[in-house]
What does this fold into?
Amino acid sequence: MKKKLIQLIEKLTAKMPNEMPPIEEIDMYHANFSGGADSIATALILKYGYKIPSSKLRLVHFRVDAQEEAFFDWPETDEYLKYASKTLDIPLIVLRGDKSLRQRIEDRGKFPGAATQYCTSYQKRDLYSKWVRSLGPGTFICASGERRLESSRRSKKEIYQVYKPANAPTKHRFVHWLRPVIHLSETEVWQLMELAGIEPHPCYTNYKVSRCSCKFCIFLSPKEMKTVAEAFPEQFEELVKMEERLNHTMKYEKNAPISLIDFIEKANKSNEQMKLDLFRPCSLLD
Ligand code: SF4
It folds into this structure.
């Protein structure tokens, strides 16, 4: 392990919260793993900062397209997850729901939104909770990669809380939620990845988006939606047709619906709009 990486990890690793059980009492650590830089930093801090052995660590990925071909997921993610798992030497678990996000949108007849973020709850939170419950009694850590500097909503998050959706003391199942990179800056996260010699997910390098989450995330800015639309024109066209068919738009502006076509047009119109960052990628409960 490189000296500079170890030094940086030691500097960036926060004291384990007092509420957390001792490391030896924990059965398994589940690092939420999208493949993005924050999730890699989370895994690195767990492994080299808190010194959790690989045998007690898992990278847990939620595949929002379930069994279907990548649509909301990036086409490169499946391969990237294998690469990251091998490079980090941490086993990978991919969780898939019974329905893809696209199918859920069709079934509901509407897109998810900020007030009805069912994409996160069905495709991530419920999936994780159900899986942890299936593990039976034990003490588990759900580690996620939110950072306070990402948004005002996240600025209020604590490093620790009980993971209520799956915690069940009467069934002898204890699930603790740890946010090991909550205090880190974006620069520090990228430094960790660089020093660890881990190649970034292609969403950053091939498509130049700022975050690795759903390809057509409901929180994308006009500029990022335009970038993704140009890279995946057929799938974008499919979303446009879905909007027409469902008579419901994915995006809203000042509480008024705005079509995806008009939304990405905003990226052309003004530099100010291009800087607009409406993007708030989700974690399990955010
Ligand atoms: S990344 Fe965006 S679209 Fe995907 S589940 Fe999260 S909020 Fe929904």
Summary: The longest strand covers residues 57-63. Confidence is low (pLDDT under 50) at residues 271-279. The two ends are 34 Å apart (CA to CA).
